[in-house]
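Minutes, project huddle
Topic: does the predicted pose make sense with WTA bound?
PN asked that the exact inputs be recorded in the minutes so nobody has to dig through chat later. Recorded below.
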Amino acid sequence: MSGSTPMRSGKERAAELSEAEIAVHWREEGYFQPSSRFIGQANLSDPSVRERFSEAHFPECFREYADLLTWDHYWQTTLDSSKPPFYNWFVGGRLNVCYNCVDRHLPKHKNKAALIFVGEPEEDAPQSITYQELYVRVNEVAALLQEFAGLKTGDRVTIHMPMVPELPITMLACARLGVVHSVVFGGFSGESCGRRIADSGSQVLITTDGYYRSGKLLDHKANADLAVKTAAEEGQKVEKVLIWRRFPNGRSATSTPMVEGRDYVINDLLTKYRGRRVAPVSQPAEAPLFLMYTSGTTGRPKGCQHSSGGYLAYVAGTSKFVQDIHPEDVYWCLADIGWITGHSYIVYGPLALGATSVIYEGVPTFPDPGRPWRIAERLDVNIFHTSPTSIRMLRKVGPEEPAKYHYHFKHMTTVGEPIEPEAWKWYYHSVGKDEAVIVDTWWQTETGGFLCSTLPALDRMKPGSAGPGVPGIYPVILDENGQEVPPGSNKAGNICIRNPWPGLMQTIWRDPDRFVKQYFSRYNKDPKSKDWHDWPYFAGDGALLAPDGYYRILGRIDDVINVAGHRLGTKEIESACLTVPEVAEAAVVPVVDELRGRLPEVYVSLKPGVTASPSAIQEKVVHAIEVEIGKIARPRSVQIVSDMPKTRSGKIMRRVLAAISNTMDVGDVTTLANPDVVEQIRTAVQGKEKKAARSGPEDIKAFGQEH
Ligand code: WTA
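Predicted holo structure (tokens), as shared on screen:
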């Protein structure tokens, strides 16, 4: 890889990359077996599932998932694939997602907790919301959205809320009416939210006055004002802002003034809707349920559009068989509902199965690293789900903590980033107390639900490997020329899914061309083909396939950085830097971080004649990133350079900067327009003394290549 020369095409260089000796920072690990106790109670312990979901039975195998739902009108055609890569599942079927997650559980489970809310202040007792109570609240909110906010089936509404029970209540109320929700992660800035409001065409914004994070009460209402302003600048007027209160009894958590005629407190309005019921709107299976914006290779986030029937069937099926959720379980996923993991595996999957899902407001290490284990003990949580970053952090600050508490997990999930075997083993031995099975689930916002994972009662676990494709998913690793990379070849390539599945997003909101281009054009040889076999789904991750059929995910091969399991686009961060008037050019690259996986590092060059001090510029750049995107995108550092390394055609060589930031070999730079600048930047970042170059991880090596 390092010997590549800029004379060659991007394709050739990338091909060399997949043939490169793999910097396998982790060696092949031994297996761990699920316990017989786990197997004895598992939802899925019949090995015939592999046969039932084999290609010979595709697509009819997904009938099993659809049959977990209650349909108003049963569907006729399992899959309509006549217009690939646009697919319709369970065609002719009608259902309501809210009905499936709430109403249908009432006869058996009305008195059981659907949600348990744990606020961050530890002195506040957890609040249980039974299915009956959820039903009542969702109906009242649905009535309000319909009558007061004037929302109709098919309208979009943006929800910018933290981890409070009113968030799933609002989502379910939307689903009841067939209103398409677009939830924006609470940690994103008002500006970010505003851009998503504009793209989705939402006239209503639903938010919260404030919430707790690391012991502080944050004023969230202030973000709403910025969001409305940004949306207006982009041509979208927000008619109403509906605000939930964090505290009962009328206490406000914000000091930001209300805007007369635009802002309304939901809790106050709700008194008018007490006891109201709204009939669930029967929706076609393919009606959109929600949009979830995610970062890609361009500056603008894209709205992944998910369906009602296919999506719900897929998350219900995978929650049942991969998460092993039974109605009597207490399930706790620490992800944020503002990301896809929270949508699929805090709200829709668990509730479709009638489970109890825990919602925790705060950070796991507040007020100390024993907090998650106290919550688990108190609520008797038995299924636990989190990210490698949380695992690494909890391990760093309190490796002995889990042993102090008497909880028992039967099952644990890791998601969002590759997990190193060391962290996996701590999770297994210390958090899981050698009792719990672990599933390492690989998937994406676009995919609705899991793609690769072991089946918890059927497969052995292997630290650092996600596992084979889950039932009905047929992955493949393709090289640069579209050739299959065979198992055990020890070559990295691009992981793709050969077939459609019910959880796959339907399209990018208002941009079907980009949907085709981004995910399917890469390996499609005949754009006119009407056969789904010709349209492999290109995930954008590098991966390796071991002889046992287990996939190891190496990370993104595009301009996306995975910071603590959160997906951030480098182009979005670069646009934020360019809002600083002194900045002429900006380039953002990923750097390896021990705890959070990757962090962004920013390089900027300045316009001529700038007199401000370097530290003032650095501060401005960091501030701009926080304002435009949010604190999660804070860079490790901001490097001010005299010039960017560039090709003769003027393209910034981000891969050279990424190599410098990660102390890797910069490769041959002699053909750059300005080769001297490379050494200048290297000494500025790494110091005068030349450090030995490391062979870095695959995603960093791939960064800045053309694909
Ligand atoms: C990464 C989160 C390794 C991957 C569900 C993917 C993972 C991106 C894993 C999607 C895993 C997710 N092992 N890497 N188990 N799970 N990823 O859209 O790079 O926020 O493309 O969805 O996270 O992030 P997203």
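Observations noted during the meeting:
- The CA atoms of residues 403 and 430 lie 7 Å apart.
- The first helix runs from residue 10 to 19.
No decisions taken; revisit at the next huddle.
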